[in-house]
Every structure is written in structure tokens, then in C-alpha cells.
Amino acid sequence: MNLSATTVRRGLYGVLAGGLLGGVASAAMIMPTANAEPVTPMTPDNCTFSGAANTSSTVSAEMSTYLAAHPETNEDLTEIAKQPMTEAQVQYRAYFAKNPQVESELKAINQPAVDLVSQCGIVVRPTPISEALQGV
């Protein structure tokens, strides 16, 4: 699936806007969220559109909280998202290769979306970073 730079940029801006709205409430969850393992196993109820929407919104909110708490990472990934898609994919791989801790933390946040694919067959990419992590 190829996304245009405009689509990626709009999605990233949406994630950032969502972070501003939930920033105060989410600030209390920053540390546990960034290092937490997903604790809710996928059940048949999660393998529905409503379950996918819930997973998507949860991953999106946690990603927004993480990026708000890590402004340098937020800025770096925002700049990469402004590039044409083929160039951005190369830059994402290079960025995550240089920042394996960031990659690990973002993959942990995105894991529930990955689980939907493996356990339910439902593809969910709630954030542009979710899309970027697919190529890493």
C-alpha cells in the first residue's frame, strides 16, 4: 500500500492534534504506556469493526502521548513524513536503525494493531508511524 506524502502528513498532523486534545489527561500515562506490554489479549469481540476502531484509537492516543513526551523524536519523524513516500520509507529505516530504543518503544505501542492482523485478519494502521513501522 503506497500512501502519498500528503496523506502521511495529514495523518501525522491528525495524530499530533489528537495529542494536544488529550495531552493533560494522557500526561499521567506517559511512563507506564511507553514501556508497557499489551495486557489485553485479542478475543473474538476484538475481531470486530468496533474492536478494531477501539484498538486504532488506543494506539493513536498512546502514539500521540509518546510523541508529545519526546519532542525531538516528534520533530524528526514529522520532517521525514514531509518527504515523498519512497524517500520517507528509506529515511524511516535509517532513523530507526540509528534509534533502536525509539523503534522498540513505538513498536510496543503499535503492537495491538499488529495483533489484529495476526489474530483476527484485520489490518489496522491507526497512525502514519504505524505504516512506517511496517517497512522496518
Q: Enumerate the spans where pLDDT stays under 50 for 5 or more consecutive residues.
A: 13-40
Largest sheet: none
- Total beta-strand segments: 0
Instruction: Give the integer mean of the pLDDT values.
Output: 74
Helix content: over 70%
State the secondary-structure class: mainly alpha
Share of residues in strands: under 5%
Shape: globular
Terminal-residue CA separation: 15 Å
As a whole number of angstroms, the C-alpha radius of gyration is 14 Å
User: Please, how many helices?
Assistant: 7
Q: SSE string, helix = H, strand = E?
A: HHHHHHH
Task: Give an overview in words.
Helix 1 packs across helix 3 and helix 3 (49-69) packs antiparallel against helix 6 (100-120). This protein is mainly α. It starts with a helix and ends with a helix. It has helices at residues 5-27, 30-35, 49-69, 71-81, 85-98, 100-120, 128-134. The chain is 76% helix and 0% strand.
Provide keyphrases for this structure.
136 residues, mainly alpha, 0% strand
Lay out the secondary structure.
Blueprint: H1 5-27, H2 30-35, H3 49-69, H4 71-81, H5 85-98, H6 100-120, H7 128-134
Write a compact overview of the structure shown.
This protein is 76% helix and 0% strand.
